[in-house]
Amino acid sequence: MPEIATTPFPDQKPGTSGLRKKVGVFRQPHYAENFVQSVFDVVDAPAGATLVVGGDGRFHNRTVIQVAIRMAAANGFGRVVVGRDGILSTPAASHLIRKRRAFGGLILSASHNPGGPDGDFGIKYNVANGGPAPEKITDAIFACACEIDRYRIAEAGDVDLGSLGEQRVGDLVIEVVDPVADYAALMEQLFDFDAIRAMIAGGFRLSFDAMHAVTGPYAHEILENRLGAPAGSVVNGTPLEDFGGHHPDPNLVHARELYERMMAADAPDFGAASDGDGDRNLIIGRGMFVTPSDSLAALAANATCAPGYAAGLKGIARSMPTSQAADRVAATLGVPLHETPTGWKFFGNLLDAGMATICGEESAGTGSDHVREKDGLWAVLLWLNILAVRKLPVAELMAEHWRTYGRTYYARHDYEAIATEGADALMADLRARLATLPGEMVAGLTVEAADEFAYTDPTDGSVSSRQGVRIRFKGGSRIVVRLSGTGTEGATLRVYLERSEPTEGQLDFATEDALAPLVAAAETILAIRAHTGREAADVVT
Ligand code: VG1
Ligand code: CO
To answer: Strand pairing partners for 318?
Structure first.
């Protein structure tokens, strides 16, 4: 097979979820090829192995899929399973890897980052359990990419990605599959579609914003065709290469239209959105935004409403910056609560080991042991199943939840594309002061503990250090600080603010008022203005 000589790019270090760079970077000659070959060299698949390939449909998706197929052929794979038109949502790809017992998969996406020729692109490798490659593999891929001097690629024309069925490149069979069918079938197994269908037939109205990203075809099929939601319930349902010029990030800033629709007098009963690659969810009830941390807690508390979870939960896992609302549910249910670093790959081991059933992140990622990725539509369907059984509006369900478990006010403040030096200096200053913070009184709050989170995986003992600073105040409030691992411009500082109120506490504050003392404390402790030159966060969600 032809080998092409190449030289390394020094920047191919995979972040929180794979390698993410500007499209222009990916379009450099040999750039994508070097990274894919580094993956193949590291994972060393047996001859004839199956590889799943698909992406979120963003600009450059098809080009890299064709390259990946030719490289799979030259690297001894026997079969590539690819979604029609190169489309596979991240959770659907995870499911397909598991269902087809593939050796692994390449997911081409930069998730919530903007797309188009000036936007972002990304490549992520997932392993045989369907989840993102663990750090020891991504570290090895980076090491390999730093030394690469050749890659293997078959000489062949483009595969027709528009036609279902099998084609060949040399000995490699390429199987183009319907990207929705297997995923939709899995959802029908987990949830009571009859109950949801009856609720919708009874006049329950929903609005799902696919943000011109990959969930459009999935949502049309599942919510409209199978569950009977009227046409128009799914908006922005056609995937576009540039997501219509928007950030496909389902938060209160980028999904503003949905938010406003849900706050209007004639709002539907339930609103939701998903991100570029379909693994995240935003949930908004009529007149009420549900924070992702609260959503995780509410889903866990009510999971047994759905047939797939009727037997109860083995445990709940949340990323460290996610609020502690889920901890109280776990305590009440009498199941373990696991706190992991940011990024879905850490949940995979817990799910494989049967230590957790439901997992979630504050960034609007929720999922379960049905796949090994977070799953946007899964969260929407679990919510709908719960509402169909509980027969309560979202706002009432949450009010009841807070009366039962207490309420956690929560917000994340993002400072995007700040200078890397300023961001690093802020973190360095903070680390240097951690030991002196306990006992200090800041903005009326007393610091109880301060440390940097390190995680020891309970299943394999691997240690991940420097996973974000946490500052805990008397009474249970917290500030968490970390730098993003998915940005492509400068650095992004994330400041997570959390205030707990017990069941007998004040449960009806406006979030902004509830968190005002923590915002002040964050500025005092972190000196955000001085370090970043920013007066305020770019995104508050
Ligand atoms: C962000 C989120 C994190 C999520 C990651 C990938 O990472 O904070 O919770 O797992 O994106 O999500 P970071 O390092 O930028 O904070 V996705 O849907 O963009 O693959
Ligand atoms: Co995503």
So the answer is: 339, 360
